Amino acid sequence: MSGLQIAISIIDIIFAIAIIILFLVQEGNDQGLGAVAGATSDSYYSKAKGRTLEEQLKRWTVICCVGFAVCSVLLYLAINRHW
Predict the structure, then answer these.
(1) Domain assignment present for 81
(2) How far is residue 51's CA from residue 53's CA, in Å, rounded to a whole number?
(3) Which of 50, 47, 45 lies closest to 30, judged by CA?
(4) Buried b (16+ CB within 10 A) or exposed e, 73-82
(5) How many CB atoms lie within 10 A of CB 28?
(6) Who's near 35: CB < 8 A, 6+ residues apart?
(7) 3-state SS of the chain: helix, strand, coil percent to 5?
(8) Domain, as residue range, for 53
């Protein structure tokens, strides 16, 4: 393995561990069938949704998932094309 492949592998593992931790820290949705029926509660929490810890965790989870996918593709290309 070249140095580039090792570096991408380490970054990929870090993203994988971060995704696992972020999934475990997040709380589940307790809406149940109310979300299917279209029931909404318009509260201060729903208006300030983007600033809550839960939304920040979701945002970082998406960022880590995209980073993991990109690193995985780069690692595949690096191994197959002998970079």
Answers:
(1) yes
(2) 7
(3) 45
(4) ebbeebeeee
(5) 5
(6) 29
(7) 75, 0, 25
(8) 1-25+46-83
Tokens for 18, please give them.
């971060």
Residue 33 covered by a domain: no
DSSP 28: P
Q: How many residues does the chain have?
A: 83
pTM of the model: 0.72
The rounded distance, in Å, linking the Cα atoms of 51 and 54 is 8
Q: What is the mean pLDDT of each run of 10 residues along the chain (83 residues)?
A: 92 96 84 57 62 89 96 94 84
Residue 56 forms part of a structural domain: yes
Q: Which two tokens stand for residue 41?
A: 């509660």
Q: How many domains does the chain have?
A: 1
Listed as own residue / partner, the contacts of 28-35 with beta carbons closer than 8 Å and 24 or more positions apart are none
Give yes or no for a contact between 57 and 22, defined as CB atoms under 8 angstroms apart. yes
